[in-house]
């Protein structure tokens, strides 16, 4: 993606774009049926299974510890926002997908619309929507020339990653609606204001890439944590199939940012998101 | 990357930072393995998965089920197959590191191979530790199926691109296998282990895919840390993650690398 004279030009040829789009579509055709099957399986399980709040509580407590251990950057700012202002932010963010304001407190463990494994699914959906929104905003800012000259690779990265996050959100929303819960089409997370603020303050592709890296690491680690804290087999399989993809996004972002692309021997969970971020 | 573009000081700093992060991750994994050794959960066949793992684990803990009883034979075979894949990866990367066009070639590629070898060694150790804790025998041999593939391909390896292509295949098999095993093993601690390794193999593959694209585009000078992001071709931004959901169709069956 490049911004020249305040405008935006497609950084690749139309033929290459068509080829990439075709390949992406083929990949979707190949793998989405499996995801639909997994989502259906998960939905069926969730219908039949009582919520296992213990698992969610483990995720919540473990993540809180991770937040406290985490150092610097946007993640820390987000964690602070989550800890200190969840009540106030929930009033602005805590709307149902239909737009109805939530009258109950934003606590994820009391009065939440989503409980048990569905709370983790809701968190996953919200994180995916957050990523989609962030990449969309970044692309719009680039198009408007607000990020200076944006490397072509960063443009294709943002476009492709956004499409994959959209697919992830669709898969998770299918689970929610299949279980009789409302789909989540916005970002009901208490850290969203901080994320938007950070995005708005970004004036370079590097700054946006750094923020995206934080979001990707958070997503990958949240899914890792979910694999051993949710009870549904379908949920485990879905989280397991998405975590590597988010980690791959992070690898490329690290490379673009000049950092080693595979920094950990084992993916950690210190940056995993907490269900307490949810405001619905 | 051409040698004149290599910032060895920065690479050393990044390596040190990476090692610090690794020490934390290794500690977490060791804790998980220790937990795995102590945790009690009824053995379940893969086809008997229910929807209340947490409840089962809690109940088993109350009953004091032994660790040996918690891990099914399928779990042990899965761990052994995983270790065999790691053993093969270590062998291939070690061999590759000694090839003249790697040893005397792109320094970043050589550094990546060295670091990746160490990471696969750590994975093999973790899988074997879990195996022995579950009462199984550590797997020290390479995966037989892919060892044969490697043996067949070795004579045709003539340059860095061939090495990268082979490594991509192995990393993908590892990532697919662990992604599959995450939802198959009967124990939460094992799920954590497989789920914490699969993304790392996926990152190896992602990096190698980008390297492969740069080599194919005669952009080897951009294989550097830091790279010149402004000069990266557009495709480099997306070639590293071709699937929205990580596939498992090429996952190895659990018996593939099991100790006989």
Topology of helices and strands:
The complex is a heterodimer of chains A (280) and B (260).
Chain A: E1 2-4, E2 7-9, H1 14-48, H2 53-69, H3 73-84, H4 86-93, H5 117-143, H6 152-178, H7 192-201, H8 205-227, H9 233-256
Antiparallel strand pairs in A: 1-2
Helix pairs in contact in A: 1-6, 1-9, 3-7, 5-6, 5-7, 5-8, 6-9, 8-9
Chain B: H1 8-38, H2 53-63, H3 67-70, H4 73-97, H5 100-103, H6 107-133, H7 144-153, H8 160-182, H9 188-216
Helix pairs in contact in B: 1-6, 1-9, 4-6, 4-7, 4-8, 6-9, 8-9
Can you describe this structure?
- The complex is a heterodimer of chains A (280) and B (260).
- With 280 residues, chain A is mainly α.
- Chain A has helices at 14-48, 53-69, 73-84, 86-93, 117-143, 152-178, 192-201, 205-227, 233-256; strands at 2-4, 7-9.
- Chain A has one domain (52-277): Ferritin, core subunit, four-helix bundle (Ferritin), CATH 1.20.1260.10.
- Chain A is 65% helix and 2% strand.
- A two-stranded antiparallel sheet of chain A has the order 1-2.
- Mean pLDDT of chain A is 75; it is low at 1-10 and 49-109.
- Chain B is an all-alpha fold and 260 residues long.
- Chain B is 63% helix and 0% strand.
- Chain B contains 9 helices and no strands.
- Chain B is globular.
- Residues 1-6 and 32-69 of chain B have low confidence and may be disordered.
- The chains are: A mainly alpha (280), B mainly alpha (260).
- At the A-B interface, helix 1, helix 6, helix 8 and helix 9 of A face helix 1, helix 2, helix 6, helix 8 and helix 9 of B.
Features:
heterodimer; A: 280 residues; mainly alpha; Ferritin; two-stranded antiparallel ribbon; 9 helices; 65% helix; globular; disordered N terminus; B: 260 residues; 63% helix
């Amino acid at each position: 993606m490049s911004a020249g004279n305040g405008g935006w030009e497609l950084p690749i040829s139309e033929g290459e774009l068509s080829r990439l789009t075709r390949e992406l579509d083929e990949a979707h055709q190949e793998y989405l049926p499996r995801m639909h099957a997994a989502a259906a399986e998960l939905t069926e399980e969730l219908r039949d299974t009582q919520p296992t709040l213990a698992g969610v509580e483990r995720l919540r407590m473990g993540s809180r510890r991770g937040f406290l251990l985490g150092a610097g950057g946007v993640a820390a700012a987000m964690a602070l926002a989550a800890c200190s202002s969840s009540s106030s932010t929930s009033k602005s963010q805590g709307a149902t997908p239909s737009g109805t304001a939530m009258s109950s407190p934003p606590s994820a463990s009391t009065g939440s619309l989503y409980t048990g494994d569905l709370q983790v699914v809701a968190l996953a959906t919200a994180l995916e929507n957050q990523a989609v929104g962030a990449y969309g905003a970044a692309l719009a800012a680039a198009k408007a020339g607000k990020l200076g000259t944006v490397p072509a690779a960063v443009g294709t990265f943002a476009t492709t990653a956004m499409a994959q996050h959209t697919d992830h959100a669709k898969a998770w929303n299918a689970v929610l609606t299949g279980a009789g819960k409302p789909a989540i089409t916005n970002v009901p997370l208490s850290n969203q204001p901080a994320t938007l603020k950070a995005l708005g303050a970004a004036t370079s592709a590097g700054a946006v890439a750094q923020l995206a890296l934080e979001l990707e690491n958070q997503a990958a680690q949240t899914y890792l944590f979910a694999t051993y804290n949710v009870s549904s087999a379908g949920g485990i399989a879905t989280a397991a199939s998405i975590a590597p993809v988010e980690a791959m996004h992070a690898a490329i972002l690290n490379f673009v940012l000049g950092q080693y692309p595979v920094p950990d021997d084992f993916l950690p969970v210190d940056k995993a998101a907490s269900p307490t971020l949810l405001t619905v | 990357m051409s040698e004149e573009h290599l910032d060895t000081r920065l690479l050393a700093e990044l390596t040190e930072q990476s090692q610090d992060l690794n020490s934390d991750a290794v500690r977490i994994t060791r804790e998980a393995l220790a937990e795995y050794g102590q945790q009690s959960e009824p053995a379940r066949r893969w086809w008997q998965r229910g929807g209340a793992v947490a409840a089962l684990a809690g109940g088993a803990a109350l009953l004091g089920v032994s660790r040996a009883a918690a891990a099914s034979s399928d779990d042990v075979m899965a761990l052994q197959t995983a270790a065999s894949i790691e053993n093969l990866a270590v062998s291939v990367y070690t061999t590759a590191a000694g090839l003249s066009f790697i040893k005397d070639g792109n320094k970043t590629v050589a550094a990546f191979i060295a670091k990746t070898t160490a990471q696969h060694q750590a994975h093999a150790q973790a899988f074997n530790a879990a195996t022995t804790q579950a009462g199984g025998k550590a797997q020290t041999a390479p995966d037989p199926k892919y060892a044969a593939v490697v043996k067949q391909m070795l004579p045709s390896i003539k340059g860095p691109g061939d090495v990268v292509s082979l490594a991509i295949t192995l990393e993908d098999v590892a990532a697919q296998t662990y992604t599959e095993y995450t939802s198959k093993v009967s124990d939460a601690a094992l799920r954590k282990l497989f789920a914490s390794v699969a993304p790392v193999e996926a990152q190896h593959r992602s990096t190698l895919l980008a390297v492969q694209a740069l080599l194919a585009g005669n952009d080897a000078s951009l294989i550097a840390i830091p790279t010149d992001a402004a000069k990266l071709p557009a495709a480099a931004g997306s070639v590293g993650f071709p699937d929205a959901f990580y596939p498992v169709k090429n996952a190895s069956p659990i018996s593939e690398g099991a100790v006989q």
